[in-house]
Structure formats: structure tokens, C-alpha cells
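sorry for the late reply, my laptop died twice this morning and i had to redo everyting from scratch. anyway the thing you sent over, i finally got around to it. pasting the sequence first so we're on the same page, its 96 residues, then the predicted structure underneath. double check i copied it right bc i was rushing
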Amino acid sequence: MYTDHYLKFASEDELKTVYALPTEDSEGVTYPYCSIDVVGRIVSIPAEIDEDDNIITEAVYCDGWHVNVRCLGDLPDELTPFEIEAPNTPARVWAQ
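ok and here's the structure:
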């Protein structure tokens, strides 16, 4: 049975301390039986833009760098310090 988890990091750099895709130069840090969806910054109030595409007011963002994780089994211990309560209206969810 899969379980969904919502994580919040202070920044993208903090996320990289516990998760990184493999590259030619690095094995990366990944977790078996877990799919990770990096959401990033979440807009709480969209920017206001006029008809000429000029920004009237800048977008406002929620605090943190957000990641959704779907695991077969428990959330890995390395990720549990970053878990937050599931939001009532997630910015992004897994397809059913």
C-alpha cells in the first residue's frame, strides 16, 4: 500500500542534503520504493498582470520548498524531520 507524504524544506539547498538525483559525477541520494515530486515554491497569491503583460503586483509565496513523496511502506527516516501535516488543498497531488 502506498502512502503519501508532504515535506517542507527551508530551501532547495536543504532538500539537496537528503535527496539528489544521480548524475555522471555522483550516485545521488535516492530512496527505494519512494517516488519524489519536487513541487518547489508554492504561490499563495498570484501576481497581478495588466493587459500589456506588465507586473502590477508580484506573486506572494508560501514559506519553504515543498516536496511530495509517495512511498511503498514507511517514509525513510532521513525524510521524517521534514514531514508536515497534509494540507487541506494541496498545490499538487499524485494522479489516481
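The first strand starts at residue 2 and ends at 9.
thats about all i looked at so far, will dig more tmrw
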